[in-house]
Amino acid sequence: MQGCESVTQISHQAGESRDHTLDQFVEVRGARVRFAVSGAGVRDLVLLHGHHANHTWWHRVAPLLEPCWRITRLDFSGHGDSDHRDGYDGSLWAEEVRAVAEAAGVERPVLVGHSMGGRIALAAAAERPAGISGVITLDTALRPPGAAFRFGWHPERVPRVRATKAEALGQFRLAPDQPEPAEEILAAVAQASIRQVDGGWTWKYDQRGLPGMRREYVEERLAALPVPVCFIYAERSAIVGADTIAYLQSIPIAGGVEIVEMPGLHHHLILEDPVRCAELIDEHATRLFS
User: pTM higher than 0.90 for the full model?
Assistant: First the structure.
């Protein structure tokens, strides 16, 4: 089957946001994980957001894919509108992906993950490869043996509260820092990243921190991964450098691997250039399904 011509045909609409409220949930180990399903296609894509992010990072990419794909988006626990937990790990988030896929009636999807979402996609595929058609990662950091991760868990940390919504929105920044995308794109993401609490407004993500996914969840299982993988990375990324690319090139992934550079872009590439990202996702997902 050919790729989705609608991605190119409606690319001029990329500046038009749609309502992507997560209207469904599934309970996973005592926490409600929010998700939503959209799109007119019969083949499934599951879109997975990154660290401290939420499903709205995809709010300009998803509409471009919906004419030809069935799209499932979710907020991981500790993020967005899903519940917080007393602790997190990569295996748990991978379980959330499987639970959402089952609840949504997803069949043999391509898992598409940005940043940390790519690591979770790889972990989910490694644990249950039979139900996965392939994995696409976008600017996901994978580390060779001995490399350190910068995540941490601080159970004593108290959420920061801003007095007004305007103040909270004014504090919103992309991390790592990069040239900001169009104002209307960033505003939509910021609006979906805060919530009202006693005394003001705060971030939705769990501010106690989120522990990194240990190597045994991802890197140490990559070579045996039987599904095809496409690693897409941003040329000007602050987290994916030459060491990461060299490491990826050294791993003989059983299902096959393709490495694709997106020139001129930074880490938050799905906000920076949603049209180019949608075109690449469509192209490579179509190939993974063939």
Answer: yes
